[in-house]
Specification:
Blueprint: H1 4-20, H2 31-46, H3 57-72, H4 76-83, H5 95-110, H6 116-132, H7 136-151, H8 162-175, H9 180-191, H10 200-216, H11 223-238, H12 241-254, H13 262-275, H14 279-292, H15 299-312, H16 326-329
Helix pairs in contact: 3-4, 3-5, 4-5, 5-6, 6-7, 7-8, 7-9, 8-9, 9-10, 10-11, 11-12, 12-13, 13-14, 14-15
Length: 343
């Protein structure tokens, strides 16, 4: 007799191995994946006389763990396949139910291609977490997801609903004061006012949200992001180079949000300093590019401009650091830095 459970278990194991191996065969949305799922469905149909045993709590837990693992590698289709059949095994309101709902809702939301059905399913699950869960962290995350979905028009066939998004962001800010959830909500709320088409009053309103939050919670977990957002708003929207530079300097003091982009941020600041005629600050920033980000793409330009400033202001006694490259810092590598070669 055909052992249906063994076949289905083997099929699930194969899917998991493909996901772990990063196989090109196994990609969310791939026609081949749906073909495999269809094959499994055909097996089930062909063995309709064999009844599956009801899934108990232990099996539900195992499926949840596997779904979390699949979602962590962006295999949302696999996570859905794991969780959908076992959701009745979880008691609503429990911790396991909350986790399962959140994973399944996220998988519906981010599975490609994004469709109206997936958006509606995810919205319903996030709303259930908000209303029925006792896990405050997942409630906050669900509110943020609901707000984000309302904010962005391309998440569904519906138009954006900015008033609803802003109200949800304000709810998170009020219910989770000073937390990372609240800080993220403040940033996203401000960003609903920061657009290239923003009127001056909208820009001021968005900046005011971040400024007020920083005043109340100066050491919040995302303060550096807020200072950089304020700088970008001044730089790109209002064109206020001085205000942008001051905000970026605060972010520099805290350590930029994305360390790997420090060279670009320092370069932007140097250009703003030049624009405001603060040449001495620009010189410091060019030095920082050469010493703190020695392999920066802007390094050659920074060095040449620093030489020019040194000639214009000999009284500053500027030090011009040598630009270090991979070869100049690795004596075992054949070749020399072209900038340091002697004729």
């Amino acid at each position: 007799m055909l052992n249906l459970s063994a076949i289905v278990d083997a099929w699930r194991g194969w899917l998991k191995r493909q996901a772990h191996g990063g196989s090109r065969f196994f990609r969310p949305g791939s026609p081949k994946v749906f073909a495999v799922i269809g094959l499994a469905a055909a097996m089930l149909t062909g063995c309709a006389m064999v009844e599956e045993e009801p899934i108990d709590a232990d099996q539900g837990q195992q499926r949840l763990a596997e779904a979390i693992e699949l979602a962590s590698i962006y295999d949302y289709a696999g996570a859905i396949a794991q969780l959908e059949p076992v959701m009745p095994a979880f008691q609503p309101g429990t911790e396991e139910w909350s986790q399962a709902c959140y994973v399944l809702a996220s998988a519906y939301r981010y599975r490609e291609p994004v469709g109206q059905e997936g958006v509606e399913k995810s919205r319903a699950l996030f709303a259930r977490i908000r209303d029925e869960s006792s896990n405050h962290n997942l409630i906050a995350l669900s509110l943020l997801e609901l707000a984000r979905e309302a904010e962005l028009e391309n998440y569904s066939a519906e138009s954006a609903d900015l008033p609803r998004a802003r109200q949800l962001y304000r709810t998170v800010m009020a219910d989770y004061p000073g937390s990372a959830f609240s800080a993220e909500a403040a940033i996203r709320l401000a960003n609903t006012y920061f657009t290239l088409e923003s009127a001056r009053e909208n820009l001021e309103q968005g900046a005011g949200i971040l400024q007020n939050y920083l005043q109340e919670y100066p050491d919040n977990p995302l303060s550096v992001v807020m200072w950089q957002q304020l700088g970008l708003a001044n730089q790109r929207i209002s064109g206020d180079a001085q205000a942008a530079l001051q905000n970026f300097e605060r972010a520099e003091e805290l350590g930029f949000a994305v360390p790997t982009k420090k060279d670009n941020q320092l370069w932007v600041m140097a250009q703003l300093a030049e624009k405001t005629d603060d040449v001495q600050l620009a010189a410091r920033l060019y030095q920082a590019i050469l010493t703190e980000t020695p392999r920066a793409g802007e390094g050659s330009f920074a060095k040449e401009r620093l030489k020019e400033i040194a000639r214009e202001h000999p009284e500053w006694s500027l030090v011009i650091p040598e630009r270090q490259t991979f070869s100049s810092r690795r004596p075992d590598v054949v070749g020399q830095d072209p900038e340091n070669q002697t004729p």
